[in-house]
Amino acid sequence: MLKEPDKKIEKQAKLIRKFKKMWERSQSDLCEVRGSVIHGRGVYATADMKKDDKIIEYVGELISKEESVSRASVQAELAAQHGDAAVYIFTVDDDYDLDGNLPWNTARLINHSCEPNCEAWIDKTRIFIHALRNIKKGEELSFDYGFEVDTWEEHLCRCGKKSCVGHIVSRTQWKELEKKKAEKHAWAIITKHAAKKIPVAKKSRR
To answer: Does residue 116 lie within any of the structural domains?
Structure first.
């Protein structure tokens, strides 16, 4: 029977083995991290790839939806303070999410684009990044983050593509995004005109 100090050592050893295995899964010869005009850092192809090729695994900690909401709130608050949208939580299924906020998770640095060349494939509780089309060596990798349209004002897009909608929103919700932007613009015009019509109080003479 293991003594208490031995149990702690064994627990630490298991944790080290777990992280080592996760680190190994997060590595890929097909891509590397470099500077990016989109968001400071990005991931680039180090070889030509064909459509559907598996590029890299998005690794992280599997967490419950409740824990996911809690962590996302904390990360979003920190991101707002530092001006960096560093939230790396990925939806796996109806019960679990994957928190990829780990320094060795290279895939977390793949930027969003309105014209992505990659997409995420979910295999049970693991997430893999695959080529959405043929990719040339040297191209920056990107995928659609799939953010909900309700938070569109919080996430500006800097992908620079011709079809860029200006915000990080799932492509499936672009029509809804345009509707919300039009409503905001119309409301701004109404408010501006209404403000002009409000009479300015004149100071009384004594």
So the answer is: yes
| Amino acid 32: pLDDT | 97
| Of 40 and 198, the one with more pLDDT | 40
State the CB neighbour count (10 A cutoff) for residue 87: 21
In a domain, 25, yes or no: yes
Split at pLDDT 50, 70, 90, the class of 203 is low
Give me the pLDDT at residue 165, please.
94
Whole-angstrom distance, CA of residue 61 vs CA of residue 89? 9
Q: Find the CATH number of the domain harbouring 126.
A: 2.170.270.10
* Domain region containing 163: 11-195
Q: Is residue 1 part of a domain?
A: no
> How far is it, in rounded angstroms, from Cα 128 to Cα 91?
13
Q: Which of 49, 55, 180 has the alpha carbon at shortest distance from 109?
A: 55
User: How is 61-120 classified by DSSP, letter by letter?
Assistant: EEEEHHHHHHHHHHHHHHHHHHT-----EEE-SSSEEEE---TT-GGGGPEE-SS-SEEE
Total domains in the chain come to 1
DSSP reduced 3-state for 54:
strand
pTM of the model: 0.80
